[in-house]
Specification:
The protein is α/β, with parallel strands linked by helices and about 300 residues long. It has 10 helices and 10 strands. The longest helix has 18 residues. The chain binds S-adenosylmethionine (SAM) and iron/sulfur cluster.
Length: about 300
């Protein structure tokens, strides 16, 4: 019988890891953000290194040397103690000679708990990408959704990643504050732009900022709020308007910045891609086009996480 790699379902991975080998390093998440379903049906666990190695060995038998990318699940695998994470990344690198990078989801607090030296060692061993959920740069909103992180922590965590040469891929959530509070929406957009402006590195390395649009998955706190009539989602026009304010407030001091901007996830109404801040005007034109031609927007029933 073929041996199987262990997965604790359901698992979540970034769209850009679609062709990566997925290996369960942790299960669930240590946080419980109001909008997220990552930890709903799981008890948090860091798996034993020997069990993770067994899964890597099975993958080696199945895929031989074809593995180029590994994504270590689950919701915040960066919480894994540095020595354990390092052992697993080094083992993967030895096992797969063509491995180009390992990646993880990382909550800002778990990045900050690691020293610069530990992050550098992880990076040198093959951990080359961290997907960090900013969600917003507005502290009031971050607190309201129980993100357990502040704008200042996102800035500090991003700088630590850049220093260690670990590529940052950060996500923000369009419509996170819900409908009916224009001031909150404007602050979310402006403070998020300010956060992105403040982390922009001075060189031309690649980094990624993506906007998802809020979905309300069953079982989450935000779902319960909606059921109680306390939360209403923004409509597609409010969503694009919020994104437009974000874009208008993007201003990088470094004109050689290479920030890949994406808002083309399945949750988004309008697919947008560009490089910040040089494509800012083009992106604003696309948003204006969407606002004036709602027929080009993704229909509600096609949206998903
Ligand atoms: C699986 S989470 C992992 C992020 C990581 N644990 C962190 O907190 O930095 C990946 C990202 O999906 C996005 N996400 C999660 N739930 C969402 C929802 N209901 N609507 C839109 N985006 C969501 C958030 O941007 C979140 O950071
Ligand atoms: S967004 Fe990240 S930290 Fe928050 S519950 Fe989901 S996986 Fe955990």
């Amino acid at each position: 019988m073929t041996e199987k790699i262990n997965y604790c379902e359901p698992v979540f991975r970034p769209p850009s890891e679609a062709y990566s080998l997925l290996i369960q390093l942790t299960e669930g998440c240590t946080f419980k953000c109001d909008f997220c379903m990552s930890n709903l049906r799981k008890h948090f666990l860091v798996r034993e290194v020997e069990d993770v190695k067994k899964d890597l060995n099975i993958a080696k038998k199945l895929y031989a040397n074809r593995i180029k990318k590994i994504f270590f699940l689950d919701g915040n695998a960066m919480v894994t103690p540095a020595e354990k994470l390092l052992e697993v990344v080094k083992y993967a690198k030895e096992l797969f000679p063509n491995l180009e990078r390992c990646a993880v989801y990382a909550h800002a607090k778990d990045i900050l708990k690691k020293s610069d030296e530990q992050l550098r060692e992880l990076s040198d061993s093959g951990l080359k990408m961290a997907y960090v959920g900013f969600e917003s740069g507005y502290n009031k909103l971050l607190k309201a959704v129980n993100k357990h992180a502040t704008k200042e922590e996102f800035i500090a965590a991003s700088k630590k990643l850049f220093k260690a040469d670990i590529t940052l891929s950060a996500t923000l959530i369009n419509g996170l504050g819900g409908a009916g509070n224009l001031e909150l929406s404007e602050m979310h957009a402006k403070e998020s732009a300010d956060l992105v402006n403040k982390i922009c590195p001075l060189d031309d390395r690649l980094w990624y900022i993506a906007f998802l649009t809020l979905m309300v998955p069953q079982g989450t706190e935000i779902y319960k709020e909606k059921a109680r009539g306390k939360f209403k989602e923004m409509d597609q026009f409010e969503i694009l308007h919020e994104l437009k304010i974000f874009m208008q407030n993007i201003k990088f001091a470094n004109k050689n910045a290479n920030c890949i901007f994406r808002s083309n996830h399945a949750s988004n109404y309008l697919p947008i891609k560009g490089i910040l801040d040089r494509d800012k005007d083009k992106i604003i034109s696309t948003l204006n086009y969407g606002l004036n031609h709602p027929e080009v927007m993704r229909p509600e029933f096609y949206r998903g996480l």
